[in-house]
Queue: 2 jobs
Job 1
Amino acid sequence: MKPQQKNRIIKQKVTGDSMIDAGICDGDWVIVEEGTKPYKSKVHVILIDNQDVTLKYVEKINQKEVKLVPANTKYQEIIYPAERISIQGYVVGQVRIY
């Protein structure tokens, strides 16, 4: 039996407050399991246009469009063409330093 290959774990420092209602605050560190599969209830690390990184919930609308959903009512959901979005992984943990 082959051992299961595990995805790599990385850390990412959070800037901004778009995920504050999910308990993720500016200055926190999130622990991310790398992967490209979207999960409906998980917070994802998203690369937009190969340059901007954001944390959001992901909703696939259809084969051509993806909706990024913040966890803060100050911000609106944004729909992107799927080719502009690259899922880098999803949050599996968080660290807050006081």
Job 2
Amino acid sequence: MYINDNDKDRILLVCDDKIVDTISAFGPLKKSGASFTASCPSCGAENGLSINPAKKVFKCFKCGNCQGKSSVAYLMHGHNMDYPTALKWLADHYNIL
């Protein structure tokens, strides 16, 4: 599916602060101070993935392979989606397009 630049920008704008919600769509999160933890989709380490919503970042401190600064990055690194597929998933999940 082709997503034009205007739609891509709209998806990224809407999803900019939804990193916690996006990651929680794949499993439960556990509150840990100002952050959250979850199972890492790359290595499977329980509570290995740390999500900081204020900084809009995530990182697995067990394997280090799953890390990034956006919902798109999480889908690409954690769930092996390419960029267009990640954008489509976000658009569908948040009813953007």
